[in-house]
Specification:
206 residues, alpha/beta, 6 strands
Length: 206
Amino acid sequence: MKNVLVLVRHGESEWNKLNLFTGWRDVGLTQTGIAEARHAGKLLKEKGFVFDIAFTSALKRAQQTLSLILDELGQQGLETINDQALNERDYGDLSGLNKDDARARWGEEQVHIWRRSYDIAPPSGESLKDTKVRVLPYYESHILPQHMAGKNVLVAAHGNSLRALIMELDRLSPKEIVELNLPTGEPYVYHLNPDGSVADKITLKA
């Protein structure tokens, strides 16, 4: 596999398991999340992937996922760049709250709007549109040039930071992107055209 861009959402986190809004809160992986990250690494190794550079966020659940993937690939020393531009969406006042408790406080409909709408942010937090505003420029200035230079690039990040990027890559509308959910620990493999558009995309599954 040559000149690929691979995107992976981190494995299950401690707060995913507890049904809490996480956002920029820095929590680690569960044992299930560790297993998911290792499995992603095994899938990539089975397909013969070797990476030239990796990117991840400033949050340890994504960094830990990347480390476990690289461990499975035998590429523990790979050049890795961490940046908060790839952090999860900031859930603001919802951060740390149980999702069921939030529904009881604000109502099912309002919490659904905050979680799933494209451009409506929770109090003191970010919408998916806001997340895209910081993710996309970073991708275009740091990640895409590496791919265009012929390198295999691995990005381990978060559900919403990757959804923001996939929205651009897959040319999804605001209505389409709200329906997209990214499974934890599942690699998305992209080949891009010279203009940065998508030539093809595959998902690696067990």
